[in-house]
Design a protein that fits this description.
By secondary structure, the protein is an alpha/beta fold. It has eleven helices and seven strands. It has a seven-stranded mixed beta sheet with strand order 3-2-1-4-5-7-6, sandwiched between helices. Helix 5 links the parallel strand 1 and strand 2.
Length: about 325
């Protein structure tokens, strides 16, 4: 078994480093050698197990594709303008890249600008594909490991000024100032917010200083669509992995109405909601623009990411 072979080498080096007696080293080496010989007998089994695992994964993905196709054939999705028909993924977590592209095909765009709060390492979010298509914008994230990855992977758009990255934890009290100091005020094209715990309050604060044409926001699909619910705001509380986070879809519908936005859809996975500014909606999306009509339940088990590992490239910039 290769693992045992890999272990033997550092054991030998450590033995030399700490000047262990030769007989001790020989005994350890002999023990590891016997383990190597024993586990080596199972190598054909591990290979078959890997093959079986890969085939099961392919079957699972195939079943998911069949599920989605049948789901889209149900009466709820018969309207050909339903945003679920336009899902596809390049950098987004699920099918958000396709939905965002379709929204701007319908409503048009201004100067192709975006603001995204909660971007991870940059390789899975809602605006990286736009960045690769010549858009410009602002990213904000407070995780140190993500900041390192972003500065490494996106050094080119950062150096050209296409991407401004701010490393900071965000609260309802500071997020407006962070965006303002970065030079983003008034109308932009897209705002995306996903910070799990306090997403509702961050979005509320941002819509007081910028006026996006469209908004993407994570909602809590565990909560029923008719329930107006949100977590209690605590600026120093972070997501702990439970379903106590964010806000219900109804809460975002009502916030949108109060600020001049219509809830036009959700992704099939039940992760993100999409709102469009009221002056851009007429004749381009199908009402009613309510949580009850647009809600998608949590289908987190649907897997989207397939193929090669992600990396950043300037697609469309030949």
């Amino acid at each position: 078994m290769k693992l045992i072979s890999y272990i033997r080498r550092p054991f030998r080096l450590l033995g030399r480093l700490y000047a262990l007696p030769s007989e001790v080293l020989q005994r350890l080496d002999a023990i590891l050698g016997r383990m190597d010989a024993f586990w080596g007998k199972f190598d054909p089994f591990w290979g078959k197990l890997d093959t079986i695992s890969a085939r099961l994964e392919l079957l699972a993905r195939s079943d998911q594709e069949v599920f989605e196709q049948r789901l889209l054939q149900s009466p709820r999705y018969h309207d050909p303008t339903h945003l679920a028909h336009f899902e596809w993924q390049v950098y987004s977590q699920n099918g958000e890249d396709g939905i965002i592209t379709e929204i701007f095909r319908r409503v048009g765009h201004g100067e192709k600008t975006f603001v995204e709060v909660g971007v991870g390492n940059g390789l899975e979010n809602n605006t990286t594909f736009l960045l690769s298509q010549g858009w410009k914008g602002l990213w904000i994230d407070g995780a140190p490991e993500c900041a390192i990855a972003i500065r490494r992977e996106f050094s080119r758009p950062i150096s050209t000024g296409d991407l401004l990255f701010v490393e900071s934890l965000v609260t309802a009290e500071n997020v407006a100032a962070l965006v303002h100091s970065a030079g983003f005020l008034g109308e932009i094209d897209l705002l995306s917010v996903d910070i799990d715990q306090n997403t509702y309050y961050i979005l509320d604060a941002l819509l007081g200083v910028i006026r996006p044409r469209a908004v993407v926001v994570e909602y809590n699909a565990t909560m029923p669509p008719s329930l107006d619910w949100k977590v209690r705001y605590e600026s120093n509380r972070w997501y702990k992995g439970s379903f106590y986070f964010g806000a219900s879809l109804k809460a975002f519908e009502l916030m949108g109405k109060s600020k001049g936005y219509s809830l036009v859809g959700c992704d099939l996975h039940g992760v993100n909601a999409f709102l469009v500014r009221d002056d851009l909606v007429a004749g381009k999306f199908s009402p009613p623009f309510t949580a009850e009509a647009t809600y998608e339940p949590p289908r987190y088990w649907l897997i989207r990411t397939v193929g090669h590992h992600r990396g950043y490239g300037d697609f469309g910039k030949a």
